[in-house]
Structure formats: structure tokens, C-alpha cells
Specification:
Helix content: under 10%
Low-confidence stretches: none
Structural class: mainly beta
Radius of gyration: 16 Å
Strand order of the largest sheet: 1-2-10-7-12-5
Largest sheet: 6 strands, antiparallel
Distance between the termini: 32 Å
Number of strands: 13
């Protein structure tokens, strides 16, 4: 597994070693020792989640506040998504900044999004399936959303030529100026 820091160094793009031949391919999607060696992080994942979305669906930006803040290891096993992480740690020099990358079944990359960040994605392909491991359980009392189209964030979502398909919850989410953030 190869780790690549993005513009916000705590958000890490992971690329697996893929073993392919005429039959297809094999790779380890997650190995605790390899993750530790690549990132230097000892993480305890407690829950696996899966979502499937059609083209144009924009989910997010989602996060959980303490005491149930979640780190997420995200990968796309079907199709392709534009995956975004936003720094919500007020004490961070990168507070309010975002990073993004394309995750797909073809590139097999994963994105580590630590606690203190909001996460969202836009489905680029006809359908996409996202799998993500979390470091804490879902806690509805700590669940929060941040407005995906906040002009302060100015996320450069890809233009698919259609209006994004967004849930009522995400459309009603607060802008960064009014959001509950991390210290």
C-alpha cells in the first residue's frame, strides 16, 4: 500500500498493490499492519458502511461531532465519484479548506479522512458504490451536515451538465459560518 498526502496532509490517499494476470486481479483492500506502515496511524475501525448512488447524486458534506467523531476510510467499488474532505478543525491552519480526489473501481484508491473533517461525494458514473470503514459508530445526536455549495468553501464540484441530486437534509445544512465545528 502506498500513501500519498494531499494538500491537507492529514487526508491521505492510499493506493493498493494490485496483482493482476489473465484471470483478473487481487489486492488487499485493508490490512491493519499495512495501513499503519503506510500512514503511521493506528486506527480501530468499528463499523463498515455502504452506499449506492446514481449519476449526479451528491451526498454530504457529513460529519459527527465529539464524543463520536468519525475517521473514515472510503473506497469506490463500482463506478466513480469525486470525493471531498473539508477541514472543520478551528485550530487548524487549513480550517475551511477542502481537498478532493477521484475514487473509482478502476483506480482502486482509498481516502483516509480523519476525525474533524466533513466528507461528501458526487457520483460521476451511471452508478457508484462506496464502502467506508468508520472509527466510531453512527450517533444521530452527533450527526451534522455542512452545505455542499457554501460559497466560502467554493468546492469545485465537477459540472455534469445536470443539477446535483441532493437530499432535503443536505440542502438545508448550514453554511460554514453557522456550522458546529471542532476546536
Amino acid at each position: 500500500m502506498r500513501a500519498m498526502a494531499l494538500e491537507i496532509p492529514e487526508v491521505i490517499l492510499l493506493e493498493p498493490v494490485v496483482h493482476g494476470d489473465a484471470r483478473g486481479y487481487f489486492f488487499e483492500a485493508y490490512n491493519r499492519r499495512a495501513f499503519l506502515a503506510a500512514t503511521g496511524l493506528e486506527v480501530d475501525f468499528v463499523q463498515d458502511n455502504e452506499s449506492r448512488s446514481r449519476r449526479g447524486v451528491l451526498r454530504g458534506l457529513h460529519y459527527q461531532l465529539p464524543p463520536h467523531a468519525q475517521g473514515k476510510l472510503v473506497r469506490c467499488t463500482e463506478g466513480a465519484v469525486f470525493d471531498v474532505a473539508v477541514d472543520l478543525r478551528r485550530s487548524s491552519p487549513t480550517f475551511g479548506r477542502w481537498v478532493a480526489t477521484e475514487l473509482s473501481d478502476e483506480n482502486k484508491r482509498q481516502l483516509w479522512i480523519p476525525p474533524g473533517f466533513a466528507h461528501g461525494f458526487l457520483t460521476l458514473s451511471e452508478h457508484a458504490r462506496l464502502l467506508y470503514k468508520t472509527t466510531d459508530y453512527y450517533a444521530p445526536q452527533c450527526d451534522r451536515s455542512l452545505r455542499y455549495d457554501d460559497p466560502t468553501l467554493a468546492i469545485a464540484w465537477p459540472d455534469l451538465g445536470i443539477e446535483p441530486i441532493v437530499s432535503d437534509k443536505d440542502r438545508a445544512a448550514p453554511f460554514l459560518a453557522d456550522a458546529e465545528c471542532f476546536s
